[in-house]
Write a sequence for this structure.
């Protein structure tokens, strides 16, 4: 995944990787002691603000698969199931988040980390089916895995299933609950799983350095860091920014919400021609803006044209990993950011 800094760093030269490491060390050293994430002393950990939201939603509807994070990997070539299980156990043992359960302790939700152990991958053998039937069964199994709920209190928060299509053709289904993972995390997971498998197959140890902190350490730091006056100042800023928030936009093709949310949405993908992309990039460079900013401005202009509204709020997902210690962690960091645009004037020549 492009958001995974580890994958990007691997493509750098040795000298650039060394420089990057020194820059990160300098950034960490320059922080005040109270602003650094430290290892927690307790075995349990508080829930981060993001985790608390999903934990609450899980209490409301524990059977909902809305916050499952499924992934399917096509594996071609010789595969040893035992080595894959060992590699998966290595990644789960390395990241506390993947062996975390969520219990209520003295009336408060707590993250409880189980010790590392082995991991058994369930196997479905479809090698005897015709190729068309295989693809159909793989799709059905993937849907079943993605739709099966998690028990956050009992765990585990990760499921894995291997589908055998032939001697050198497999599909690996991995599903995590969003409370311990996000898109960036999936990039880390795949990279470390592949690296661990490769190392074990060659009789070596995985090449990944020890993690400086774990997600529970981040959650404990976040709860302590954003408290009291600092938290009130942050909330006051957002209250001011979102004051007199406009009502929901009434889009021409929109429909009323159903009485019960169904989550039966869809995704529409479009491809932009290379010359259009080059034009957008040139516009961004000329305005000293990012490509995202140009596309957001175009989206705002479209919403204005469709609705006539000038006070617009658009939500976008952000990685929310602003600290070097959090970059190599599997965990739930992603956040939805409200971007309000109510201080602008559109002057477009419209046909």
């Amino acid at each position: 995944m492009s958001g995974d800094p580890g994958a990007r760093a691997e493509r750098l030269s040795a000298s650039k990787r060394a420089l990057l490491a020194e820059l990160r060390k300098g950034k960490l050293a320059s922080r005040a002691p109270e602003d650094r994430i430290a290892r927690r002393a307790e075995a349990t950990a508080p829930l981060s603000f993001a985790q608390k939201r999903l934990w609450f939603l899980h209490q409301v509807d524990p059977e909902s698969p809305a916050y499952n994070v499924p992934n399917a990997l096509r594996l071609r070539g010789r595969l040893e199931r035992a080595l894959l299980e060992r590699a998966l156990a290595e990644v789960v043992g390395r990241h506390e988040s993947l062996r975390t359960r969520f219990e209520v302790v003295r009336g408060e939700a707590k993250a409880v980390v189980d010790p590392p152990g082995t991991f058994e991958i369930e196997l479905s053998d479809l090698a005897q089916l015709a190729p068309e039937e295989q693809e159909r069964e793989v799709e059905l199994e993937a849907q079943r895995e993605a739709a099966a709920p998690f028990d956050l209190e009992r765990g585990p928060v990760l499921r894995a299933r291997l589908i055998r299509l032939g001697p050198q053709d497999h599909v690996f289904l991995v599903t995590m609950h969003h409370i311990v993972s996000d898109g960036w995390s999936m990039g880390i997971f795949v990279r470390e799983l592949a690296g661990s498998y490769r190392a074990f197959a060659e009789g070596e140890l995985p090449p990944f350095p020890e993690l400086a902190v774990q997600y529970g350490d981040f959650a404990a730091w976040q709860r302590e860091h954003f408290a009291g006056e600092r938290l009130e100042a942050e909330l006051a800023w957002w209250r001011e920014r979102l004051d007199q928030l406009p009502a929901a936009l009434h889009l021409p093709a929109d429909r009323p919400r159903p009485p019960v949310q169904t989550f039966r949405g869809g995704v529409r993908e479009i491809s932009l021609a290379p010359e259009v992309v080059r034009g957008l990039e040139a516009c961004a460079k000329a305005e000293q803006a990012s490509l995202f900013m140009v596309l957001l401005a175009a989206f705002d202009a479209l919403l204005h044209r469709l609705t006539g509204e000038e006070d617009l709020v658009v939500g976008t997902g952000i990685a929310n990993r602003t600290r070097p210690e959090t970059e190599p962690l599997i965990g739930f960091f992603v956040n939805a950011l409200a971007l309000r645009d109510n201080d602008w004037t559109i002057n477009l020549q419209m046909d």
Notes: The longest strand covers residues 68-76. Strands lie at 45-46, 68-76, 100-105, 108-113, 122-125, 158-166, 169-177, 312-318, 335-341. Confidence is low (pLDDT under 50) at residues 346-351.
